[in-house]
Amino acid sequence: MAQALRPNTAGGLFATDGKPHPVQDTLLAVTLVLGVTSLVTAMFHHLHLLSSWAGLVGILTGAYGQWISETTRGRFGLILGLGAAAIGFFLGMSHGGLFGGVID
User: Fold this and answer.
1) Tens digit of each residue's pLDDT (9 = 90 or more) over 27-85
2) Which segments cross the bilayer (predicted)?
3) Which residue, 38, 28, 7, 33, is CA-closest to 70?
């Protein structure tokens, strides 16, 4: 029970095991940025191309990040980014989709 009283001073914000994880942290940042971009642009009907493509790429990067993730904090952030990307992707698909208005 002594470990419960000892603060975790090793590692950064997402590296709870004290080791650096540059690939996982990069995937986390990319997934969060794409998720927020997809979610925000989904609120505008005329930005459905950006919303759907950013959501699709965010889902793919988040899924790969989940697959190689080694820390719980990283997985938590990836789930937030994945959720935002998925909602933005689905709203973008309902507003016109990946190619709506481009191919007629």
Assistant:
1) 999 999 999 999 999 999 899 999 999 999 999 999 999 999 988 889 999 999 999 99
2) 26-44, 50-69, 76-103
3) 28
CA distances from 65 to 1, 12, 17, 30, 70 (A): 32, 18, 17, 10, 9
Beta-carbon contacts of residue 5 (< 8 Å; ≥ 6 apart): none
Record the tokens describing residue 104, joined without a space. Answer: 């007629």
**pTM: predicted TM-score of the whole model, two decimal places:** 0.82
Residue 93 in tokens: 């698909």
What tokens were used for 43? 């609120």
